Structure formats: structure tokens, C-alpha cells
Amino acid sequence: MAELRAETPCAGLVPVRVAGLSLSEVAPGRMTSVAPYRGQERALSAALKSAHGMAWPAPGRMTGREGARAIWFGQRMALLVGPDPDPALAAHAALTDQSDGWAVLRLEGAGAREVLARLTPLDLRERVFEQGHTARSELAHMAASVTRMGGDAWQVMVFRSMTATLVHEVETAMRRVAARGIFP
Amino acid sequence: MRLSCPICGERDRREFYYQGAALARPEGEAWDAAWDDYLHNRENPAGVTRDLWQHEQGCGAWLVVTRNTITHEVLGVALAAEAGA
């Protein structure tokens, strides 16, 4: 009988390091999309708070902390990243496991913003896209989720099947930004 | 061209998908001229028009966009769920 071996979405593709920039894989743990039933938003936020310690994220925002986060993921939807979802949430929202469906990457280093700016039409300027902000947008023509985790640290997610394309596109952009020699 | 999504804020046109004219669905199921217009007949205005767009690469919401085809001004964007089509 065949022995199946689990592989992460980015196995063999990362890490990529170019000058001061690095692209690496994040092991997010369990990921669950949470979509509140009509009229249940408030009850869901309360349940989320008591079960996982974070409030329901407003559009374009991330709540929680390292290891247990809620990332806004679209209209009336958030992605719970880290913990297994508390069964109590199921009374207020549709929960769907997404753990193996998305590649999660972290791009960091001086110039990371300029790398992403080559790939997405989002306004990534410091005062517009602050730490803890998130957006659904296109990244190199792929449907992506982009979140600013820190000053020069960004989290990028695409569907797992598009991982190799994403890594290729981001690596190309990293090389081009580095070639300009304006970031130490 | 940029559209201000009521949920996401101002975004590039590349994130949006164009559907067509935003029309109110006729009442009832009996076939009449109103259904004929709804299904087949379209204005092609030089001026203000109301279209349905979807924020496909963003939040996914359907939007009613009011814009001017002569000046290319975007006069308003509302959630289709709230504006009525």
C-alpha cells in the first residue's frame, strides 16, 4: 500500500532570500473560515471573545495575537487562524476548515512593501496600510489575502494550487527591488 | 478608474467585475412588456448610468455603481443588497 507523506504547500519552494528580503512559509495551524448567520454577528463576536480571546474583526482588520488570530476575509467572513474552532461558534456561524487550502507566506525585510507594490494595486503606504490591517485583493492576478504583521513584515495567502506561481512572482519582484540597490 | 467599495474603501478597477445595467426585477411571473425590458432591452445612455459590479477580487460584495459615461465621473457606490437593483 502506498505510503502518503504530508507536505506543506511551499515545500521545496522557500525560503527565498534576496539581499535583506526573505520569503518564508508560515505554519499557521488550523485555519477555519467563519461566516456568521444572519443577525448573529454580535453573538458570534461574544462567543469568539470568550472561546478564543479575540473580537470579530472589522472589515480590513485583524484581531487576536500570535497563535490565535481572526483575519477579515471578505464580506461577512473571517478566517480563524491557529486554534481548533470552539464548537460553541457553530451556533452562530458556518465553520469550514481551510487548513490545507491556502499557502501562507511571510515576506519581510527592508523593501518588502516595494516588492508587494509591484504585484498588487493595493495602497500599501505606511499611514494607509497600518500594522494589523488586512485586505483581499489581487496579487500577480491571483486572489490573495495580504496582511501587515509588523513594520516590514507582511503575510500573503493564496490558494494552495497557486503557490509555485506566487513564489516565482514574489521572488522575481524581490530580485528587481534588490537590484535597485536603494535598500540596505 | 477607481471605485470606492462601501466595505473595503477605494480600490483599483482591476479588482472589480462588471455585470451590466442595474435594473429592478419586475413583479409577478406573468409575461409582459416589463419582463421583456428587464431581460432584453437596454439603454445605452450618454450620461448617468447605474450598473452592477462585483468586488470579485476583494470582499465579494455586489455593488450598484452610479457613473457618468461622458465625464467618467463615479457618482456613487452602494451595496446592491441595500440599494436594491
TrEMBL record, chain A:
Q: What domain of life?
A: Bacteria
Q: Look up and give the organism this protein is from.
A: Roseovarius azorensis
Name of the protein: Sarcosine oxidase subunit gamma
One Pfam family, short name? SoxG
InterPro entries recorded: SoxG, TrmE/GcvT-like
From TrEMBL, chain B:
- Stored InterPro entries: SoxD, SoxD_sf
> Which Pfam families does this UniProt record tie to the protein?
SoxD (PF04267)
A molecular function annotated in GO for this UniProt entry is: sarcosine oxidase activity
Q: Where are the transmembrane segments?
A: none
Q: Which GO terms describe its biological process?
A: tetrahydrofolate metabolic process
Protein name per Swiss-Prot or TrEMBL: Sarcosine oxidase subunit delta
Species in which this protein is naturally found: Roseovarius azorensis
Q: What is the lineage of its organism?
A: Bacteria, Pseudomonadati, Pseudomonadota, Alphaproteobacteria, Rhodobacterales
